[in-house]
Amino acid sequence: MRLTASKSVLVLTLVLCFWGSSVPASAQSWSNNYTHRRAITIDHTKVPNTDQVNFPVLISGTYPYLASTANGGAVTSANGYDILFTSDVNGTSPLAFERETYDPSTGTVNFWVNVPTVSHTSDTVIYLFYGNSSVTTDPSSAMATWDNNYAGVWHLPDGTTLSAGDSTLNSNTGTIIGATAATGQIGGAAAFDGSTGLITVSNNSSIDVASGDFTASVWFYANSYSGFNTVFDKGTTSSNRDYSFWINSSSGGWWAIGSGGGEYWSGSGFTTGTWHYLVMQRSGSTSRVFLDGSSAFSTTDFTGTTDSGGNLDFSGNPTEGGSLWDGKLDEFRISNTARSADWITTEYNNQSNPATFYSIIGAANSNSGTSGNPLITSAYLTANPSSLAFGNGYVGVSIALPVTLTNFGIANVNFSNVSISGPGFNASGVLTGQILTPGQSATLNVTFVPPATGSVTGSVTLSSNATNAPTIISLSGTGTQASVSHSVTLSWSASNSSVAGYNIYRSQVSGGPYAKQNSSLDATMTYTDTAVQSGQQYYYVATSVDSSNNESTDSNEVSVTIPTP
């Protein structure tokens, strides 16, 4: 590969082969052998300001279709082994997830799914597959779900039998001393009586955060306050402490990081008889407390090193002073990084009310869902993503982005009109009169050619017989003046079969979905893509087409990064 300031050249060897018969590009085949599929759509309005990467999304609720087949559901494994989460509609790209709890009798679940990117500008869609009698081993992986920045994750399940196991690779399992199982904010929790109950985690280098950045978080429920009740404490004495938090009353708390003393936080929010989300964070020289998703207090006074060598205690350390916790604690976590305010708010939005954080679109052959998760009984159309942000583009240069449209209903979706608004936007791939059968998908290719410098907005509106019609995809982009132009030239070896020509497809995500770049078949074995932008990475595949319009499978994928500028 040779890249210059004016031109990027990419030489490919593409392997092209024909299927035995013509198969529509939009046809769905669940090669993973699962019989049921639903789309989980994460509401981007619950994700403030920035995208979240490797974010553990809580999927929590009672879904009768996830009960075992013996209890009227569609899951064949009594352990829930044939429940799978994927990033793609065909179920071939599994996502790492942890099964915290699963009840086969009701379909009540608590899953944590690691979603690579949760967008703040458009709804993120992942897919739930279930019902596969061939699955007999557990596909979940707790350690793969929590990124390497987590030093400890204690779910404190399951409401009947208390466990203090750590879900991370650090295996910081706690010792239960007098605490009992109780109903929690998320599944089970640990209950403490205010006099003897606590959970202690032995000192470990992974939870000794020293002088670096860190984040500690927990859901707490107070029965009463009786003089600085300890939520958590790591240390040995009041002068040899790592990180600690106490609550004195419904309007006051004391917190400390390091051995240099602590600070009193006076404010409302520590009400008894309800669950609250508490986060302590240090970023550089600034330490902060967040309550219920919002920043509540910050200071630069905590400068001491936090490596006391003491154990971490939930409910308190009797040698440190203060009272033990009278109430319940759930979902305690330590990270060796400063989670952002946007991350913390997104966590709160997800964990405080999962039913409003995401929605689950039903399937034709499933049992009825719970509130907010309807069974689709006619045509139902989903768009992934539901909005497109083209970013900056050079005036007069085309940028293409794909949208996957899927019929999740039980009747055909018939498109009666496809319209587009906004200067510089255009769409192809879906036509008026086109039909999507149940389970079938089609790719809508949207292009943006900035007509002038400046920001523009628009939309694609798809009218159909779907119950949720019209489907509106919002568009935005900004035109900039190009000072240097680039191109990518691709070449490939001829197909072994007789062909009429070739198609070139491009994506900015490895593995697609891809958008076709050529308007007509390319009869040569080279193609030059001039619609590229400085600093961007592109992924290409090619297909061959015979005289009967049969199209081959995709070639191998190649990528190129455009120089800047």
Structural class: mainly beta
Question: Which runs of at least 5 residues are low in confidence (pLDDT < 50)?
Answer: 1-29, 364-375
Give the class-level CATH name of the domain at 150-336. Answer: Mainly Beta
Largest sheet: 8 strands, antiparallel
Work out the radius of gyration: 27 Å
What is the arithmetic mean of pLDDT?
A: 85
Task: Give the count of helical stretches.
Answer: 3
Tally of strands: 39
Distance between the termini: 18 Å
Tell me roughly what share of residues is in helical segments.
Answer: under 10%
Quickly give the CATH architecture of the domain at 150-336: Sandwich
What would the principal axes of the Cα set say about the shape? globular
In percent terms, what proportion of residues is strand?
A: 35-45%
Q: What would the CATH topology of the domain at 150-336 be?
A: Jelly Rolls
Description:
With 565 residues, the chain is mainly beta. Among the domains are: 36-132 and 354-361, Immunoglobulin-like (Sandwich), CATH 2.60.40; 150-336, Jelly Rolls (Sandwich); 381-477, Sandwich (Immunoglobulin-like). Helix content is 4%, strand content 43%. The chain is built from 3 helices and 39 strands. The strands form 8 sheets. Strands 9, 11, 12, 14, 19, 20, 21 and 23 form an 8-stranded antiparallel sheet that branches. The longest helix has 12 residues, at 341-352. The radius of gyration is 27 Å and the shape is globular.
Describe the structure in brief.
The protein is mainly beta.
